[in-house]
Amino acid sequence: MTSKIQEVENRLFSTDLRSLSAPELMTLSRKIMPFEAEIQTNNPQLIRKRIAVIGTANVQFFCAVLRPFLYAHGLAPSLFEGAYSGMESEIRDQTSAFYAFQPEVVIALTNYRDLHQYPNLLASAETAETLADAYADSTILTWEKVHQRTGAQIYLTNFAVPNLHLLGSQEANLPASPDQFIRLVNSRMLTRKPPFLQFIDQEALASDFGKDRWFDNSAWFISKQAAALSALPEFCYAAARQLAAGSGKIKKCLAVDLDNTLWGGVVGDDGLEGINLDPNNAVGEAFLDFQKTLKKLRERGILLAVCSKNEPEVAESVFDHHPGMLLKRADFAAFAANWNDKAANLRLIAKSLNIGVDALVFFDDNPAERELVKKTLPMVEVINVPEDPADFSLALTRARCFDWEQFTAEDLSRTESILADQDRAALNAQLDYPAYLRALQMRVEIGAAQPAELTRITQLINKTNQFNLRTKRYSEAEITETAQDSNRALIRVSLTDKFSQYGIISALILSRDSAENTLFIDTWVMSCRVFQRRLEYRTMNWLVDFARSRQVPLLMAEYIPSERNKLTAELYEELGFELISEEFGIKKYRLDVKRYNPFETWFEEESENGQSPKITRPDA
Questions:
Q1: Which end of the chain is more exposed for a tag (fewer CB within 10 A), N or C?
Q2: Do 357 and 305 touch, CB atoms closer than 8 A?
Q3: pTM reported for the whole predicted model
Q4: Rounded CA gap, 156 and 192, in Å?
Q5: Cross-strand bridge partners of residue 509
Q6: Rounded to a whole number, what is the largest CA-CA distance in the chain?
Q7: Burial, 344: exposed, middle or buried (Cβ in 10 Å; 0-12, 13-18, 19+)?
Q8: What mean pLDDT comes out for the span 99-125?
C-alpha cells in the first residue's frame, strides 16, 4: 500500500469527518478519487453501490462532500453526478445518461423554489389541501416511473421552509400562506410515500443548522447552490447515514457509563444519597433529561447496556433503591459494571447480546475512556460527549447513529426478549438439551409473507449478518416486488415460546428456474436471538416439503463468505446438500429432495395461519 493511499484511508476511517469544513471535505474527495479501486480492494467490507445524485439545482459540491462520508459509513460508491439543474430532463428522457448509469440508489435534491403554484393568500384550508394533494400525486407518479425503469431506492429531500417570510406574522395565521403551504406539501407527500421512497428531512436539518445559515442567496444566484457551502457537511453526513442504514450498516446497542453520565457524582465515593438526580436542581434535571432520552431509545428498540468501572452491587443499588432514577435495571439488556477496561467490557456486552462489536455505540463522559475505545475498538462508534450534561441528549441524537430506515413491532419488544433469555438459561441449566427445547414449548409458523410484514422482512434481511448465507441486501421496494412475483416466494418464519413472542425471526427468498425445474435459495437469514433452537433444521424440513408439493426435484443453494457469516460456512453440508463447486470461497450446492431425511426437532404443532407461497407446481 502506497503512503498516499494509506494517508487517504487514515483520513477516511480514523478521522471525525464532521469536524472538517466543506472545503476540507472536497479536498479529501479529490484525493480519494484516484485511489478508489485500491481503497475498495483494501476494504472488502465496504458495500458497493451505484448512487446517482440529481437535483433541481447544482449538485456538484454535494457530491464532493458526500463521497468521504459514504466511505466512512461503509459504502463504496460509484457516483453519478447529475447535470446542472437537470433533474427533470434526466428522469423524463429514457435515453439519458442517468438511466444508462443504472443506479441502485437515487438521491434527489429539491428546494422550495421548485414549487411554482401556490394557493391564493385568502384561499381556504380545503383549497390549499386540494392543491397540495395534486402536487403530491403528480410528484409520486413521476418517481414511480423512475423506480419502474431503474428499480432504484430513491431518497428525496422534502422542502425546507425558507427564512423569507413575506407575510410576517400572518404566515402562521393564514392556512394558505406560503410557509404553511410548503409544510402542507411535505405532509401530503409523506402520506403518499411508497416503499421505494425515503425522505431526507431537509426541513429538520435546515432548522437545526439554522435557516439563516442554511440558505445562501448569493450562492444561489451565482451557482444555483440550494444550500450554503457550510451546511453541506451536515447535509451529506445525514444523507450518508441514511443510505448506510438502508444497506444494513446500523447500530443496535448503546453502551453507557454511569458516574457523571447517568447521574451527577460518583456513587462509590458520594454514596447513594450523594449523587445528583434532583429534579429541582439544574444539574440533576439535566441528567434526568438524558435518562428520558435513553428511555425513549429503548422504547423504539435500541438495546441499552451499562459499561462502567464500578462495584457491581454498588452500581445496581442505584437502579434498585434511588427514588430519582427513571431508568431501571430491567431497561438494560446487558450490565457490565466491574474494574475491567471499557474495551474489554464492550466485547463482553457484544458477546452477551450476540451482536457484532461494530453494532455498539459508546457514551462516556471521560475523554480518556473514549480515546481508549477509539484506539482499541475502532469499529465501535464513540460519541463525543460534551462537558455539560444539558447537551448530552443533543450530542447523542445529532450523531444519528440509530438512524434506522424501518421500525417494527419486533423492535419494540427486543429488550424484554433478551431479558427472558436469562430465564431460558436457568431452565437450560436444569435439563439436558432436548428436554430443554421441549420445555420451551416452542411453536413455529412458516408461510408466505403478508403485505403488513414486508417492512419487518426488509429490516431482518438488511440487519442480519451472522446467519446470512449470501449477505444480499434488498430495499423494501424490492421485497415488495419479490412478494408479488409468481416465480419467487418470500417466506417468513415466526416463533413463540413460553417466555416470548419473537414475531418474525427468519426469512427466505426462493427463486424458481422453470426450465431446470429447480428452486434456488436466494436469501436465508435468521436472527441471532434464536440460535441453537434447531429452527434452521425445522425450516429445512419445511423447504423440502414445499419443493415436493410443487414437484420440484432439486433445491439449489449458495454460500458467499463475508466477514460476519462464518457461522453458516458449513450449514448446507450439515443440512445434507451436495457441494457441486467452490471458487474463491463461494460454494454452490444442490439437494435431491427425494433422498432427504427430515431432521428431528422439538417444536410443538404448527399454527394453521401460515399461508402457502405463490410458486405453483409446474403442471398447474
A1: C
A2: no
A3: 0.73
A4: 13
A5: 490, 523
A6: 78
A7: middle
A8: 93
The answer to whether 300 touches 412, Cβ cutoff 8 Å, is: yes
Look up residue 280 and give its three cell numbers.
Answer: 429541582
Query: Residue 606 has what pLDDT?
Result: 61
Take residue 336 and report the three cell numbers written for it: 457490565
Q: 376: number of CA atoms within 13 Å, CB side?
A: 15
Region class of 507: left (phi > 0), else alpha (psi between -120 and 50), else beta: beta
List, in sequence order, every residue forming a beta bridge with 557; answer none if it has no partner.
589
What is the per-residue pLDDT across 58-91, written as a single tens digit (0 to 9) for each?
Answer: 999 999 999 999 999 999 999 999 998 889 999 9
CA atoms within 13 A on the CB side of 322: 25
**Grid coordinates representing 303?**
438495546
pLDDT at 576: 94
Contacts of 584 (CB under 8 A, 6+ apart): none
Interhelix angle 60-72/22-32, rounded to 10 degrees, is: 70
The answer for residues whose C-beta is within 8 angstroms of residue 279's C-beta and 6 or more apart is 285, 288, 324
User: Binning pLDDT at 50, 70 and 90, where does residue 619 land?
Assistant: very low
For residue 122 the three cell numbers come to: 385568502
Structural domains of the chain, with CATH = 3-246 (3.40.50.1110), 253-398 (3.40.50.1000), 428-595 (3.40.630.30)
Amino acid found at 584: F
Strand partners, 519: 512, 555
Question: What residues does 374 pair with on adjacent strands?
Answer: none
CB atoms within 10 A of CB 455: 18
Contact 13/72 with Cβ under 8 angstroms?
Answer: yes
DSSP secondary structure code for residue 525 in this structure: E
Tell me how far CA of residue 142 lies from CA of 90, 117, 134, 137, 244, in angstroms.
Answer: 12, 18, 12, 9, 25
Residue 106: exposure state from Cβ atoms within 10 A (0-12, 13-18, ≥19): buried
pLDDT tens profile 225-272: 889 999 999 999 999 999 988 887 889 999 999 999 999 999 988 888
pLDDT for position 141: 94
Contact 8, 31 (CB under 8 A): yes
- Angstrom distance (rounded) from CA 68 to CA 63: 9
Amino acid at the residue 58: N
* Alpha-carbon 231 to chain mean position: 24
Amino acid identity of residue 234, one-letter, is E
Pull the grid cell for residue 147: 423506480
- pLDDT at residue 533 in the model: 83
DSSP bridge partners of 586: 583
For residue 466, how far is the Cα from the chain centroid? Answer: 16
